[in-house]
Amino acid sequence: MSKNIRIAPSILSADFARLGEEIRAVDEAGADYIHIDVMDGHFVPNITIGPLVVKALRGFSEKPFDTHLMISPADPYLKNFADAGADIISIHPEAGPDFIGSLKTIKDLGKKAGIVINPGTPVAVLDEVMDIVDLILVMTVNPGFGGQSFIESQLEKITAARALINASGRDIDLEVDGGITPETAKLAIAAGADVLVAGTATFTGGPLRYAENISALRG
Ligand code: DX5
Ligand code: ZN
User: Fold this and answer.
1) Closest ligand 1 atom, residue 198 Cα
2) Containing domain of residue 183, as a range?
3) Residue 168 alpha carbon to ligand 2 centre in Å
4) Which one, of 165, 156, 160, 95, lies nearest residue 130 by Cα?
5) Catalytic residue at 37?
6) Which member of 66, 75, 177, 194 is catalytic?
7) pTM, whole model, 2 decimals?
8) Is 30 part of a structural domain of the chain?
9) What are the tens digits of pLDDT across the range 170-183?
């Protein structure tokens, strides 16, 4: 894989009492994106953070805020996240009746639009959005919690998404999220991923380990 691998620490595994400092620390440790998991206790069985917190964190890093919305509906909140400072806004197609419309709204807000494929979501859903999306996120766990194990059967989806991206000729990130470790990172990269989300693997061991943890994921 010649393409540059980018690492997106998921702040879900950070110390929530010190989130701003945690973001600054992973930024300085070499993070490429800051991955923000937004959960509503409805689309997924967990509640995390909303636009007010994203806004409060914005000043702690200039790296792209990669905002993963696990909320339904997402449409009423897209502008709030854009205004709060999200750079990439990703949605799940199951979150609303018109996900293509949601992606267009994100683009109209001047942000990068991402689509997320759950382990149970067929890859065919991508066919309709290859001309719109800036990022495809393949989940390698069922969303809701950090610290789960990588589902290897999703590697085929990463390979399929890579083929679609190459055929499109467009500049689309292929991101993988869930259970990334130095070992599973290699598998994801070999399948064609170029952005790796890593919560547990980044934040384990505390701030003195972040740089080492992040570089261990680059393959
Ligand atoms: C799961 C989230 C992931 C998660 C990753 O719903 O989307 O971003 O925090 O955590 P790890 O890297 O610990 O699997
Ligand atoms: Zn995520």
Assistant:
1) 12
2) 6-218
3) 25
4) 165
5) yes
6) 177
7) 0.98
8) yes
9) 999 999 999 999 99
CATH of the domain at 188: 3.20.20.70
Lookup: tokens for 88: 């990439």
Positive or negative torsion for Cα 115, 117, 123, 124: negative
User: Which residue has 């000043």 as its token pair?
Assistant: 59
Per the domain annotation, does 1 fall within a domain?
no
Say whether 177 is catalytic.
Answer: yes
Residue 1 pLDDT exceeds 80: no
The one-letter amino acid code at 218 reads R
Residue 92 lies in a domain: yes
Instruction: Give residue 219's pLDDT.
Output: 78
pLDDT in tens, 29-51: 999 999 999 999 999 999 999 99
Q: How many residues does the chain have?
A: 219
The domain total for the chain is: 1
Cβ(146) – ligand 1 distance below 6 Å: yes
Q: Are 85 and 55 in contact (CB under 8 A)?
A: yes
